[in-house]
Amino acid sequence: MPDIGHRRWAIAEGYIPSGSVSQDHALVSHEAVCLLNAGEKDADIAITLFFTDRDPVGPYRVKLGARRTLHLRFNDLQDPAPVPRDTSYASVIESSVPIVVQHTRLDSRHPNIALLSTVGYAEA
Amino acid sequence: MPDIGHRRWAIAEGYIPSGSVSQDHALVSHEAVCLLNAGEKDADIAITLFFTDRDPVGPYRVKLGARRTLHLRFNDLQDPAPVPRDTSYASVIESSVPIVVQHTRLDSRHPNIALLSTVGYAEA
Amino acid sequence: MPDIGHRRWAIAEGYIPSGSVSQDHALVSHEAVCLLNAGEKDADIAITLFFTDRDPVGPYRVKLGARRTLHLRFNDLQDPAPVPRDTSYASVIESSVPIVVQHTRLDSRHPNIALLSTVGYAEA
Amino acid sequence: MPDIGHRRWAIAEGYIPSGSVSQDHALVSHEAVCLLNAGEKDADIAITLFFTDRDPVGPYRVKLGARRTLHLRFNDLQDPAPVPRDTSYASVIESSVPIVVQHTRLDSRHPNIALLSTVGYAEA
Question: Potential cystine with C100: which of A89, B102, C36, C121 (Cβ 3.0-4.6 Å)?
């Protein structure tokens, strides 16, 4: 399949609540970036995080094979540093080949969950 | 009415929870792709699903008449294979004529429902 | 202020649940289209609704003054016909001047509310 | 890092509910605009609010440093006037350098929270 997407994306919203009503992995409060590489070449992806009152952190490096998707939780990022909880951040995602990026948050601070999702901003 | 949209779309987020608080069809956890063909020609649509650690599955073939909309649940796809539950996936939607694609999830794992929706990524 | 937006928009998702936990106007289940006319000329807007198995209905005609916003509930549309509940639909919004269109649903079928929102698809 | 985004954005949806189930700052009903300035120059940002039946209010002036993000609550805007509660509005965001804009609402009127988020409309 021909590739689809762009090489440079941004997500201006980011926030991982520290609280959760459940310790079930699927229902822990989390923030994820869904990455799709529909094309025939593997993608080298670099994620940079931006904050309100300190310098950016990154790059976080991720590999995404050809014709694969990865739903990456920001909660799980560790290198070069874990993502702070209860802190606003934003992200820029840069890829060696065109990909599609979608952002999702599951918030389970309260007795029920809330969801949000939106396609990232793609630099044409 | 003149057509509106694009012929190639991608949705990087996909996940059908296996649990639901209700067996009412309208409230069962589901993930849907809303397709609009506003133009005067019927659309032949092919959906391909992408996964984290195996090859893509598809195409799932769908017909959408001129001047019609279809809100298709991924839960209902059967041919060539049902969509696995509790599994991350992504999708590419290709159409013979321009269409508009929007993605919606209703999550009723917990005692209350959560909703998300976003317009897909359109390849210009 | 110079205008911003496009003259032709589509929202592929549409569904008004018939049930609500509250009869409070703000909390009744509803689906809305938020229209912004930031420019200096009044807008004549025509909305056409599309369905799964019958012909489109419309146009619903709406006026939106210069430098004004209107958050229009599909629930309130009456002419040429009310919007059926518990029925999937899609919409195309056409304007005489550039506008911005965002789609929102508040679902209060269950004991708690759920929200979704997304910017419409704009025909470039 | 090179900048990413646009200088002119619009969000057609806006509504701050007056009620909240919690007075915890993180869980009070709020509407926010997430701004990302990934580039190397500081941004001077002007926000104008639009209403249904009166003239626009603004500009609200915000500074956003190079390589910083700001998650600004409309609830907190005071100059030239606070944002009315329980009132529909829309916004246009103009920046001296390219930025990315995403819109989020947390609604805690009911015993549980609901979330929505979407990338704003960017004027190409």
Answer: C36
Amino acid at D77: L
Between the alpha carbon of residue A115 and those of residues A31, B46, C117, D105, D115, the distances in Å are 10, 28, 11, 11, 6
Residue A100: per-residue pLDDT:
92
Q: Which residues of C touch D110 (CB under 8 A)?
A: 27, 108, 111-113
User: How many Cα atoms are found within 13 Å in the side-chain-facing hemisphere of D72?
Assistant: 22
Instruction: Give the whole-angstrom CA distance, residue D19 versus residue C22.
Output: 15
**φ/ψ bin of D34: left (φ > 0), alpha (ψ from -120 to 50), beta (otherwise):** beta
Q: Which residues of A touch B (CB under 8 A)?
A: 1, 4-5, 26-27, 34-36, 38, 67-71, 100-102, 104, 106, 108, 111-119, 122, 124
SS3 of residue B74 by DSSP = helix
What does the DSSP assignment read for C74-94?
GGG--SS-PPPTT---EEEEE
Query: D47 and D83 in contact (C-beta within 8 Å)?
Result: no
Contact: D115, A111; criterion CB under 8 Å: no
Closest CA to A33 of A46, A24, A23, A42: A46
Residues of chain A with pLDDT under 50: 111
| Alpha carbon separation from B32 to B101, B104, C3, D14, D64 (Å, rounded) | 10, 5, 34, 26, 38
Which residue spans within chain A are E strands per DSSP? 6-11, 30-37, 43-50, 57-64, 68-73, 90-107, 114-119, 121-122
SS3 state at D75: helix
Pairing mode, strands A30-37 and A90-107: antiparallel
Write the DSSP string, D94-121: EEEEEEEEEEEEEE-SSSS-EEEEEE-E
* pLDDT tens across the length of chain D (124 residues): 899 999 999 988 888 877 655 666 666 667 888 999 999 999 999 999 999 999 999 999 999 999 999 999 888 999 999 999 889 999 999 999 999 998 887 655 554 555 666 666 776 6
**ipTM score of complex:** 0.88
Question: How far is A81 from A66, CA to CA, in rounded Å?
Answer: 27
